[in-house]
Amino acid sequence: KAGVTQTPRYLIKTRGQQVTLSCSPISGHRSVSWYQQTPGQGLQFLFEYFSETQRNKGNFPGRFSGRQFSNSRSEMNVSTLELGDSALYLCASSGQRNTGELFFGEGSRLTVL
Amino acid sequence: SQQGEEDPQALSIQEGENATMNCSYKTSINNLQWYRQNSGRGLVHLILIRSNEREKHSGRLRVTLDTSKKSSSLLITASRAADTASYFCATIQTSGSRLTFGEGTQLTVNP
């Protein structure tokens, strides 16, 4: 069974630009969560999608958005990038809502210059 | 804010020694999970312990949970250089479905 796939793995943007990150969950998993990881803030929850609906949202500004498609693939978008958005963005899928066990992708490393 | 706090923040040991990491959390939980992350990579699920369990084993891993103290510990026995990684505890609160991570313990196992 293929794991969670995130693209791109690395990208460099400049302030003010926008970025879209993609995540393909494990086949059969309908829940996709996104996390931002930085050295200073650790792992911060961004949002969770289940069957194309946003089920949970973290404390991030409206510049951070996401969506999920009917095939469970998910994208997240960050508009008007700031230097502080430089981070590792991790996507995780889950097949069991009652346990919450997550399967993570390798992440997308975003650098904002 | 993070649900869990881990202790120590960093731990350096020699190969063959045991490594113990602790996690404390703030609210009632459904379960507590431990994850491992190699530098710059994604997280890998190690073990899950439910709120009604006190101890669980998986290979060289032993996890304990004390809900009265809102704390958990992860013991890695007979550590290997390949165990070098960051270890995170994560909890799901009884009132929600979101997995919240602690700040992690950076474990270094010296050969």
Summarize the structure.
Chain A has 113 residues and is mostly beta strands. Helix content of chain A is 0%, strand content 53%. Chain B is globular, with a radius of gyration of 13 Å.
Distance between the termini of chain A: 37 Å
Global morphology of chain A: globular
Number of helices of chain A: 0
DSSP strand content of chain B: over 45%
> Taking all residues together, what is the mean pLDDT of chain B?
92
Tell me the major beta sheet of chain B: 6 strands, mixed
- Rg of chain B, alpha carbons: 13 Å
Lay out the secondary structure:
The complex is a heterodimer of chains A (113) and B (111).
Chain A: E1 5-7, E2 10-13, E3 19-24, E4 31-38, E5 42-50, E6 53-57, E7 64-68, E8 74-78, E9 87-94, E10 103-104, E11 108-112
Parallel strand pairs in A: 2-11
Antiparallel strand pairs in A: 1-3, 3-8, 4-5, 4-9, 5-6, 7-8, 9-10, 9-11
Chain B: E1 4-7, E2 10-14, E3 19-25, E4 29-37, E5 43-50, E6 55-58, E7 61-66, E8 71-76, E9 85-93, E10 99-101, E11 105-110
Parallel strand pairs in B: 2-11
Antiparallel strand pairs in B: 1-3, 3-8, 4-5, 4-9, 6-7, 7-8, 9-10, 9-11
Description:
With 113 residues, chain A is mainly β. Helices cover 0% and strands 53% of the residues of chain A. Chain A is built from no helices and eleven strands. Chain A has strands at 5-7, 10-13, 19-24, 31-38, 42-50, 53-57, 64-68, 74-78, 87-94, 103-104, 108-112. In chain A, strands 2, 4, 5, 6, 9, 10 and 11 form a seven-stranded mixed β-sheet that branches. Chain A is globular. The model of chain A has no long low-confidence stretch (mean pLDDT 93). With 111 residues, chain B is mainly beta. Chain B is built from no helices and eleven strands. Chain B has strands at residues 4-7, 10-14, 19-25, 29-37, 43-50, 55-58, 61-66, 71-76, 85-93, 99-101, 105-110. In chain B, strands 2, 4, 5, 9, 10 and 11 form a six-stranded mixed β-sheet that branches. In chain B, strands 1-3-8-7-6 form a five-stranded antiparallel β-sheet, with no helix packed on it. In chain B, a hairpin with a 5-residue loop joins strand 4 and strand 5 (43-50). Chains A and B meet through strand 5, strand 9 and strand 10 of A and strand 4, strand 5 and strand 10 of B.
